[in-house]
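User: Structure tokens for both sequences below?

Assistant:
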Amino acid sequence: MYFHELEGIRTSLPANSPLNIYSIIINVLYDELLENTAIESLQQIINTLLSLDFSLGAFYYIHALDIILDKYLLTNLISEETKLKLVNRFIQVLNHTPIKPLLMKKYFYQSYLSYINNNQVEFEELLLLSSINLITIYNGKQLQKGKEKVQKAFDYDFDEFLINASKKVFTSSLFEIKE
């Protein structure tokens, strides 16, 4: 039903009209439901998102960026350069909209960039922040989905990573007891 509603709204949008944040969010929500395919206007939507003034529609803007990153970060459908631009824009907008689940995703997206840039220390720090937020915010299916995403993205066992990274942090000088 939801899919058909979005489909109906998409077809009612004026053809060849300029993209705005409202038509973008409808298209991105629709695209999110498509499995193993992307809408034909994906690149145009990404280009508009990266150039759009987000000050009035920040909530929709940040969610459109998040949905695109969530779906395409681990694929080859968009270039690494575009992924970097999308993550940087996500971080920029998130500074104005500090919503806990989105902060968690920010850490995940940043850890991905550190991972592909072979910055192991930064990668582990950011993935630990993302992981701690994940287990704090979610449970059940959402938590499992997040764990699977870590496994898919980094070929890491989530629970094992969390245990080892936590031990490393707790034995660091940050937690040194001074008398």
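Moving on to the next sequence.
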Amino acid sequence: MHMIDVAALQPLVNDLVLGLLTALASIVAARLCALVKAKRDGELGQILDKTLGMGISFAMSRLKVLEDGHATVPVKSELVAEAANYAVLHVPETVKALGLDGEHLARMIEARLGTSVSAGGVGA
């Protein structure tokens, strides 16, 4: 029986196993980071949702004051602006962390109000 010496292949096998373990660890770390980021973004989204709701309520209360002084007021666009300003003022880190700008906030508020200010102007 003949013997084959595979000792020369040992460094290559070690490097291959180390590379595979590093790749596996990188994949696990990336998935864990994505999971943590998704959880964080979900929590930030809940904070923003509550803040937008409070912003809409705040804007509606300010709207009542404006209505008392004027017969006609461009209601929805002022309402959206007030609600967006409220959100930016009260949770700026959340808005920044989620990568939102004024247009995003306006669309989110419009969706909650069930209207489209940018498409329909002042609206009914």
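User: Anything stand out in the second?

Assistant: The chain has a mean pLDDT of 78.
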